[in-house]
Amino acid sequence: MPTTDHGELTTAGRAAASEETPSGPDTTAGPTQRSRAKESRRQALLSAAASLFAVDGFNKVSLEDLGAAAGVSGPAVYRHFPGKQAVLGALLLTVSQDLLDGGRHVVADAPEPSAALARLVQFHVDFALSNPDVIRVQDRDFSNLASEDQAQVRALQRSYVEVWVDVLAGIHGTTDTAELRMRAHATFGLINSTPHSVRNHGRRMAIKSARPLLENMALAALLVTASPLAR
């Protein structure tokens, strides 16, 4: 499939987008209704991108594919994003910001570090089980992001890790910060990889069974006391 969607809006794209934009005032819908409809189409495009990129990979999906999956014409995608790479950027930036905001909210509402950690684990498990396609896209297609978007995603993800590190520091006391970061990253690896197994390998495990197992395993990994292995 053609993938010449990375650059600026083409002449044909401008023309098509222009044709789908009303030339006069819309007397049937107020600004709020129009903005809601536009945001709904944008979210539909991001949802379609997550599914298509996860299955076929970024390079094999065209803007026409995205538009068809979201119920709009390919050129109409340009009304929401300047190109396919921008769609990928919006997808990963949005989820990274949502994780950071959600993590901070969880910690702010928790009465003490142990409760905050348990709620962070629940929050991240819920994210992983609900968004396996986004996790796969992040793993496989991060390198296809524009360099500026890569830097922003990394910055957001580092801030999210620090939310966990701050909570872990309240539990593990004088433990070195580098170790606390390692615990957080290892836990993300455990949680993020499991939805693929739940969905795709052998007998499918019910989400309602996977959730408590994941939460308990993650908490055990985060709370375990490190000691030298017997040799």
Please write out the topology.
Elements: H1 11-19, H2 31-56, H3 63-70, H4 84-109, H5 113-130, H6 132-141, H7 147-172, H8 177-200, H9 207-223
Helix pairs in contact: 2-3, 2-4, 2-6, 4-5, 4-6, 4-7, 5-7, 5-8, 5-9, 7-8, 8-9
Task: Looking at this protein, list some descriptive labels.
disordered N terminus; single chain; mainly alpha; 9 helices; 71% helix; 231 residues
Give a short synopsis of this structure.
The protein has 231 residues and is mostly helical.
Describe the fold and architecture.
The structure is a single chain. The protein is mainly alpha-helical. The chain is built from nine helices and no strands. The chain has helices at about 10-20, 30-55, 65-70, 85-110, 115-130, 130-140, 145-170, 175-200, 205-225. Helix 8 (about 175-200) runs antiparallel to helix 9 (about 205-225). The longest helix has 26 residues, at about 30-55. It is elongated and about 55 Å long.
- In angstroms, what separates the terminal alpha carbons? 55 Å
Number of strands: 0
Shape: elongated
Beta content comes to under 5%
How is the quaternary structure best described?
A: single chain
